[in-house]
UniProtKB/TrEMBL annotation:
Main subcellular localisation: Golgi
InterPro entries associated with the record: GPP34-like, GPP34-like_sf
Native source species: Coilia grayii (Gray's grenadier anchovy)
Alphabetically ordered keywords of this record: Golgi apparatus, Lipid-binding, Membrane, Signal
Protein name: Golgi phosphoprotein 3-like
Location relative to the cell: Golgi apparatus, Golgi stack membrane; Golgi apparatus, trans-Golgi network membrane
PANTHER family: GOLGI PHOSPHOPROTEIN 3, TRANS-GOLGI PROTEIN GMX33
GO CC terms, sorted: Golgi cisterna membrane
Signal sequence interval, chain numbering: 1-19
The organism's taxonomic lineage, starting at the top: Eukaryota, Metazoa, Chordata, Craniata, Vertebrata
Membrane topology: Peripheral membrane protein
Similarity comment: family membership: Belongs to the GOLPH3/VPS74 family.
């Protein structure tokens, strides 16, 4: 399962709908797009050179423009390829989210990402669609029809912070690290650990903070993989 789809499930299924009060999910999903493109070998950060520039100062470059087969990923890749001069990770997350005051750059915004992800998950049989009344209006929600996917993701994240704790941030499996970073970016991490006992919850939160408060540039130096650099760059952009 791709990081983008997994993260979409993770965010959407905590309540069956995306909360009006959570402003972080949109940027978290765009961060997931950047990470997935890097994992698939489509984009990478420009080399640090002798100046050893920070992750957020390095531009996003295209390694391959071959279609991924995913509409959202291909849409983002098309924008990145066509943009000169290149932009950094933080800029791309803002542009793809539509958080720009420049009307000439509004066309970069990826629209209706949550709805498109939800529709994809409905087609896969993970979600269903129904109307739910919220006092003054009705809202389309997407309750679980198959809880297995959500339980797998939540269990995977919990295990990575407990039974399978790697001891150091850079030793986490790549996609597990990405899921942790994106759950943090979307402000759903605490909710994913809510089923734990008090003692295990405190341990999981302590270990997650050790990862999320680590210095992204220092952690990225411990791996030469382009995808790992992108994950740490998305964390750096989230923590700005």
């Amino acid at each position: 399962m791709t990081i983008l789809v997994a993260h979409g499930i993770f965010c959407l299924l905590l309540q069956g709908y995306t909360s009006f009060w959570n402003d972080s999910i949109s940027s978290g999903l765009r961060g997931g797009v950047m990470i997935e493109l890097a994992i698939r070998g489509r984009i990478y950060l420009e080399p640090p050179t002798m100046r050893k520039r920070r992750l957020l100062d390095r531009k996003v470059l295209v390694r391959s423009d071959a279609p991924t087969g995913d509409v959202l990923l291909d849409e983002a890749l098309k924008h990145i390829k066509a943009t000169q001069p290149p932009e950094g990770v933080a800029s791309w997350i803002q542009l793809l989210t539509g958080e720009t005051w420049n009307p000439m750059r509004m066309h970069f915004q990826m629209r209706n990402v949550r709805e498109r992800l939800a529709k994809s998950l409905v087609e896969k049989g993970v979600l269903t669609t129904e109307k739910q009344n919220f006092l003054l209006f009705d809202m389309t929600t997407h309750p679980l029809s198959n809880s297995g996917q959500k339980e797998q993701l939540v269990q995977r994240l919990q295990d990575s912070l407990l039974e399978r704790w790697a001891g150091e941030a850079h030793r986490l499996q790549r996609r597990t690290l990405a899921l942790l970073v994106l759950a943090h970016a979307s402000d759903v991490l605490e909710g994913s650990l809510g089923s734990l006992s008090d003692e295990r919850y405190e341990m999981a939160m302590t270990r997650s903070r050790a990862v999320l408060e680590a210095e992204p540039d220092a952690q990225a130096c411990k791996s030469s993989a382009a995808a790992d650099e992108m994950i740490w760059a998305v964390l750096a952009a989230t923590n700005v």
